[in-house]
Amino acid sequence: MDPAPFTPVRGSCLCGAVRFELTGKPMSLSYCHCSRCRKQAGLSAAVLMVRRGDFRLLSGAEHIRRYTPAAPFKHVRAFCGTCGSPLGEPSEDHEVFPIAASALDDDPGVRPVLHQNTAALPAWHMLPDDGVKRMEGTYGG
Ligand SMILES: [Zn+2]
Ligand SMILES: [Zn+2]
C-alpha cells in the first residue's frame, strides 16, 4: 500500500539562510526541558524525531555550525552560524535524528506526546496544564 500523501513541511532559520523541508510525517514531537536544551533553545526544546530520508536541506549548508559538547554530554547541536537558530541534529550518520520544531514554518501534523526532564524546569518556567505526559528525568545531553 502506498503511504498517505504528505504535504512537505518547510523549515528555516531566523535569517533565512538555512532552509529545509520534511517530506514525510515526523515520528514524534516532544519537549525537552533539560538545562542543556534550555540554554541552546532559549527556553525548552521542541524536538521532532525525523527519518533521514524525510529530511531535505534546501539551502544554507555552509551556514550550519555544530556544537559538540565535552563528555559526559553527547548531543551535537546544529545551528545557523549567522543568526544562531537551533536546527536540531541533522546527520548523515543516523537513520533517525532530532530536528528543532522551532525552525518549522508549517504545521508538521504531529502533536507533543511527552514533556521530558521536567525535574530540570527552572522555577520561573511554569508548564501549562496541557494533559501531555511528563517524565521528570535527570538527564541533560
Ligand atoms: Zn540563519
Ligand atoms: Zn534536553
Please characterize this protein's 3D structure.
The chain has 141 residues and is mainly beta. The chain has a domain at 9-27 and 45-109: Metal Binding Protein, Guanine Nucleotide Exchange Factor, Chain A. It is 5% helix and 31% strand. The protein has one helix at 35-41; strands at 9-12, 19-22, 28-32, 45-51, 55-59, 64-67, 77-80, 86-88, 96-100, 114-116. The protein has a four-stranded mixed beta sheet. A three-stranded antiparallel beta sheet has the order 1-2-5, with no helix packed on it. The N and C termini lie far apart (39 Å). The structure holds zinc ion (2 copies). The site of one zinc ion has 7 residues, from helix 1.
Approximate strand percentage: 25-35%
Strand order of the biggest β-sheet: 9-4-3-10
Q: Any idea of the CATH class of the domain at 9-27 and 45-109?
A: Mainly Beta
How many strand units?
A: 10
- The Cα radius of gyration reads 15 Å
- Bound small molecules, which ones? zinc ion
Biggest sheet layout: 4 strands, mixed
Overall spatial form: globular
